[in-house]
Amino acid sequence: MTLEVEMPGPAPEDDAEEPANDGREGRRRSPWFTVPLSLVLGLLAVAVLTPLTVGGRVWYQGRQDERPRSDAIIVLGAAQYNGVPSPTLRWRLQHALNLYRDGVAPAIVTVGGKAPGDNYTEAGSGRAWLIRKGGVPASKVFAVPEGRDTLESMRAVGNEFDRHHWTSAVIVTDPWHGLRSKKMAEDNGIKAAASPTRSGPSVQTRNTQFHYIVRETGGYLAYVLWGEH
Fold first, then answer.
1. Mean pLDDT value across the chain
2. Which segments within 48-140 are labelled E, that is strand?
3. How is residue 16 annotated by DSSP?
């Protein structure tokens, strides 16, 4: 007598047990979500770190006193009152005079136009002060009476340097203005250094220093990104 035992065969595919889906697949993060998030975080980092980096450069440059032997000293303009330099402009002129007497450069270039209604330019008032008060020979002081902002003035100064075949300069301005001034001068063909004054409203208190550093940081970024003054 033979006992037949039916062996279980492979289950039909249709009857195969479906793997349990506990919802984890649906919760997996899509790569399309990861890429935009990384991009947003990267842009946020750039937006935060770039101004901080530039602000650090503005602060560092303002603390430097660069006075290499150069072709000329550039005195950036400030207000004048009927031909009389304002205190800010006078401090810059005195600093430039000291550099000239120390032999930093054999010539001084005064810069700056005039506001509507003015009879005198910043450049002309500065030149007259250096000759009359500072005793600098008239043949050594050159006025560039153009520009109501630093960019316009530096373009005009670049043309003046080309006319004299000069290539290098020491810029006299406020401390926190040094970085942007140097950049604009270099973009107009001048190898520039900066020797700032240590007097004036921009260095009176820590609060005013912070205010001017923030303003110059914005000004530098605007110039580099969009070419604005």
1. 86
2. 72-75, 80-81, 84-85, 108-111
3. S
Sheet holding 108-111, edge to edge: 141-144, 108-111, 72-75, 168-172, 191-194
- Would you mind telling me the total number of residues written for the chain in this entry? 229
pLDDT band at 187 (very low <50, low <70, confident <90, very high): very high
Return the C-alpha torsion angle 8, 14, 19, 23, nearest 10: -160
Q: How far is CA 139 from CA 81, 109, 155, 196, in A?
A: 25, 11, 22, 25
Total-model pTM: 0.80
Joined together, the tokens standing for residue 188 give 């107009």
Q: What is the pLDDT of residue 5?
A: 47
Q: What backbone torsions phi and psi does residue 47 show, to the nearest 5 degrees?
A: -65, -30
Q: Which two tokens stand for residue 210?
A: 């912070």
| Alpha-carbon torsion (162, 67, 175, 88), positive or negative | negative
Question: Which tokens is 74 given?
Answer: 């550039």
